[in-house]
TrEMBL record:
Main EC class the enzyme belongs to: hydrolase
Keyword hit for Transmembrane: no
Matching InterPro entries: HisE, PRib-ATP_PPHydrolase-like
Any single Pfam family the record assigns to this protein: PRA-PH
The protein's annotated pathway: Amino-acid biosynthesis; L-histidine biosynthesis; L-histidine from 5-phospho-alpha-D-ribose 1-diphosphate: step 2/9
Compartments where found: Cytoplasm
Protein name, as recorded: Phosphoribosyl-ATP pyrophosphatase
Reactions accelerated catalytically: 1-(5-phospho-beta-D-ribosyl)-ATP + H2O = 1-(5-phospho-beta-D-ribosyl)-5'-AMP + diphosphate + H(+)
Entry's EC annotation: 3.6.1.31
NCBIfam families linked: histidine_hisI, PRK00400.1-3, PRK00400.1-5
UniProt organism field: Bombella pluederhausensis
MF terms (GO), sorted A to Z: phosphoribosyl-ATP diphosphatase activity
Amino acid sequence: MPQDNTKARERCQPVLERLYHTVTARKGASPSVSHSARLMARGRSKIAQKFGEEAVECVIEAIHGDRKALISESADVLYHLIVMWVDAGIDPADVWAELERREGTSGIEEKASRPKPSV
Ligand SMILES: N=c1c2ncn([C@@H]3O[C@H](COP(=O)(O)OP(=O)(O)OP(=O)(O)O)[C@@H](O)[C@H]3O)c2ncn1[C@@H]1O[C@H](COP(=O)(O)O)[C@@H](O)[C@H]1O
């Protein structure tokens, strides 16, 4: 049965939702007019590669401490992540729901609760 993500969708960032819908609408559009369509036409590996490159650029700007560049690279990362979600058939609301599920659980606590590997 599909998850009911209504509450998660209501609370998610509207701009990311709009971008998701725009990119979804670009599926199958001409690669000559849409960058999203061009990326999707090149396939999942290319999209993942571009996402990785943008993430590395974000890391570089974080280390340099250039706030403006980090904001710009962060936007590139989010755009490419959304193209990757659209291509993979992932609805952002599923991700918002996962983040909500994690709310209130400390990362330290969660890691400590993982089953210990048997040796
Ligand atoms: N947020 C973005 C966005 N961020 C970055 N980019 C584009 O991503 C490209 C990144 O350029 P690069 O040179 O790094 O990569 P590349 O052109 O794939 O080149 P190669 O690495 O393959 O050589 C540039 O063309 C940017 O303009 C974006 N393109 C589109 N959007 C959003 O997506 C919407 C739909 O865009 P289209 O699909 O182009 O209609 C737009 O209205 C925007 O809201």
